[in-house]
Fold:
Amino acid sequence: MDRVNAALAWVNTILWHDYVLYAIVGTGIVLTAWSGFSQYWALRHGPAVIRGGFDDPDDPGALNHFQALSTALSGTVGLGNIGGVALAIALGGPGAVFWMWVVGLLGMSIKLTEVTLSMLYRNTDDPDNPHGGPMWVASRALARRGWPRTGRVLGVVFCVCLITSTATGGNMFQAWNVGEITQAYFGIPSWACGLVLAVLVGTVIIGGVRRIGRVAGTIVPLMVAAYLVAGLWVLAANVGDIPAMFKLIFASAFSPSEAAGAFIGGSAGSAFLFGMKRAIFSNEAGQGSSPIVHAAAKTDEPVREGIVAGLEPFIDTIVVCTFTALIILSTGVWNRAPDLPLPDSVAFEAAGDAWRLPDTALPGNDWHAGDSVSVIVSAHPNPVTENSLHRVSGVVAQADGNFVAQWTPFDGDKPVIASDGIFRDYVGATLTAKAFDAVTPGLGKWVITIGVWLFGLSTMISWAYYGEQAFIFVTGDRAVLAYKLGYCALIIIATLGLVRTTTALDNVIGTGTGIVVCANIPIIWLFAYQAMRAYRDYIARLKAGRIGPDHPAPSIEDLLSGRDVQQKP
Structure:
């Protein structure tokens, strides 16, 4: 696994080179200016559309606007908001949150553009089961220009990248977090959680996009509301610290964050890097994934669904991610003191070309084999933190009834232990749960565990549909069943304990996200002018009063179930 992790780290240096991040930010800036700040219309017109006044059962599609948005949000508002924000702060410091906000605002214009394009080029040969996404945009748009083979190849390349991202960030990251936190709090083996998740996901995705839409339309609003209410309880207990937290976020975005406790420090560059990566992973702007489910919306106005999609990054990043960030920062769990002492006699020993700590006995019996721990050491300069601190990880093992930490080798100069003790390595959602526990002991155990299960389940369901549509584009319907079985098998594999550390987890999801972004951004640039032309026409008609609700908004029950767009007998 060390070699695999090293290989993924090398791939990440290419996929997430500074120039790639500049390209994403530049795309958002250009589209924001080109559209005349489309974020305004997403926030003003989008809520009216999702309320159902514009839904028409005679339009092509399978889902109403609310269901399409809920399904897309179920793929974005999830563990990226709970575990991803924790990762960003743990690796990049508080400044990472600022760059998440920037990506969230710019992502609104990116999302509007890519969804509008997918609606313009979606396949409605079967009006009740349309297909769409960047692969269809590339294929159909280039075919119209006399380059059908080039379009097909570009579409297949995107699908391969999307399937990679589906398997890693959309599936395995979710399952890993669910298993990790359930094992940490309840002692239930992670692999058992994987089995349950696989059964639940399989039951839903077999029913197709309509079942996915109904499930998402029901649980997404409830789980978001419940998470925000629980977050308000924590923030209310630390309300006096909130202004200082915002000041810390802004200051850390442009200057190095000093090491403190469990946090080993972070440069302004690392805040930018990890904040951008986690925000893109969380709200999916530029990935081209959520346009696939938006293409199933019932509408004959492509831009209308694009405006609805523009709400996703706002809800996901500006609202939910900010709640998580403030909870983690205000409770101080990100830079806490060591969790247990380290014996004075422990020191690094030479181990070939590396250095290694001897196995260390751990006091207490509240450990599980496979738990992660770490110590902080001082050695050669660390470019990520702009200091000489490094984190050395260990895995808990059981020997003769006692628990010991088995440490990974350290390459470089001989390290000197810089922390006063050993840290329990709270990664991903577990760190967020500990923030809740800091206010009300036991709160994180239930709120975050339940939230992780719901968020993870809904995200895996949505991403299963994204990957399915990619397989259909490449191979046709014949591969769908094999794909679904393979997708469920990956859930189990992800919970077998192969990935244990924050860095390894970041490498896995960073690779999947980076690949699909690099495939989708060129498609946006090639055809964005068509989306902007359609957008300007739609807004002009809206301002002139030529577009308006054709009927009163449906009941909440009909909106949630999708009955408002069912064909009348």
